[in-house]
Design brief:
Layout (H helix, E strand, L loop, with lengths): L1 H4 L14 H8 L10 E3 L2 E4 L3 H6 L4 E5 L8 H6 L3 E7 L2 E7 L1
Antiparallel strand pairs: 1-2, 3-5, 4-5
Length: about 100
């Protein structure tokens, strides 16, 4: 847990992505949240979990992001996420079918 919370963002990402510690904290309070860490060579590298969710019978994956120019919207759209029309904490919520 500590290693995940200590993950650092690249300087150009700091205005776009919440620190991993925030994500871990939110995951404990958002209903329906499921959080897993991805490791590369035994070091935490991220928190995505598509295959695990499919295996547990989940049918949809949602994400939100800061709506700024040159932000993450294109990244999520390329990966099959679409706008749900909802917002969470002022951020658009995108979803994709698993």
């Amino acid at each position: 847990m500590r290693a995940v919370c200590e993950l650092e963002l690249a300087p150009h990402q700091e205005r776009l992505v919440a620190p991993a510690a925030f994500t871990v904290a939110e995951g404990n309070y958002e209903p329906g949240s499921l959080l897993r860490a991805i490791c590369a060579d035994d070091e935490p590298a991220g928190v995505l979990l598509v295959e695990e969710l499919r295996g547990q019978g989940w049918t949809t994956l949602e994400t939100s992001f800061l709506p700024v120019e040159d932000g993450a919207e294109g990244f999520w759209r390329v990966r099959g996420f679409t706008d749900t029309g909802r917002t969470l904490h002022g951020e658009p919520v995108f979803a994709r079918v698993l």
